[in-house]
Amino acid sequence: MAKLIYAMITSLDGYAEAAEGDLGLGAEDEEVHTFIDDTFRHVGTYLYGRRMYETMVFWETAHTDPDAPPHIVRYARGWQAAEKVVYSTTLPAVSSARTRVERSFDPDAVRRLKAEAEQDLSVDGPTLAAQAIAAGLVDEYHLFITTSVVGGGKRFFPDGVRLDLQLVEERAFATGLVYARYRTR
């Protein structure tokens, strides 16, 4: 059975999306980007909400930029090779290959995807991830913690959920970004 992984960049105070502005610096670094690519190369399916998909669809054509460095091209190729499922009631159509739209999040359908998948799945975006967490579907949590405190926004972990996690990996980068991977107990 494949794992469902929730991974996001998050502020030091726990926000995956800032109320105002961005989450600060740290993930743009080549070392960090290469680590992210290496860590998630085994993901065969990405589950997105509409807004996260609209951010990530950049990778559909990122490789065509003649000035794109090799680590960007490599990540783009991996993203393009994966299946993408976008959960949205408003997105009329997708603009990337290997992508389909589902109008609602169905925990049982995701359980079937996990059971049938040969590669791991990733759920991205705090709103969609909150639904997966509430349904008990998430097996691992990967936090990329910036050095910024943003004071508000959408939290990485949803309110009202109790989780007991086991730290299985950690790494600090020269940019100050800290990576922490947790597994559900």
Q: What percent of residues adopt helix (DSSP H or I)?
A: 25-40%
The largest sheet has its strands arranged as 5-4-3-6-1-7-10-9
Tell me the fraction of residues in β-strands, as a range.
25-35%
CATH architecture: 3-Layer(aba) Sandwich
Low-confidence stretches: none
> Mean pLDDT, as a whole number?
95
What is the CATH superfamily? Dihydrofolate Reductase, subunit A
Which class do the helix and strand fractions yield?
A: alpha/beta
Would you report the number of β strands?
Answer: 10
The run of helices and strands is: EEHEHHEEHEHEEEE
CATH topology: Dihydrofolate Reductase, subunit A
Number of domains: 1
The biggest sheet, with number of strands, parallel, antiparallel or mixed sense and barrel status, is: 8 strands, mixed
Please tally the helical runs, counting DSSP H or I stretches of 4 or more residues: 5
Domain Bacterial bifunctional deaminase-reductase C-terminal: 3-178
GO biological process, one term: riboflavin biosynthetic process
InterPro entries: DHFR-like_dom_sf, RibDG_C, Riboflavin_Biosynth_HTPR
Protein name: Dihydrofolate reductase
Any overview of this molecule?
This protein has 185 residues and is of the alpha/beta class. It is globular and about 40 Å long. Strand 9 (165-172) and strand 10 (178-184) form a beta hairpin. 27% of the residues are buried. Helix 1 (30-40) packs parallel to helix 3. It has five helices and ten strands; from the N terminus they run ββαβααββαβαββββ. The protein has a single domain (4-155), classed as Dihydrofolate Reductase, subunit A (3-Layer(aba) Sandwich), CATH 3.40.430.
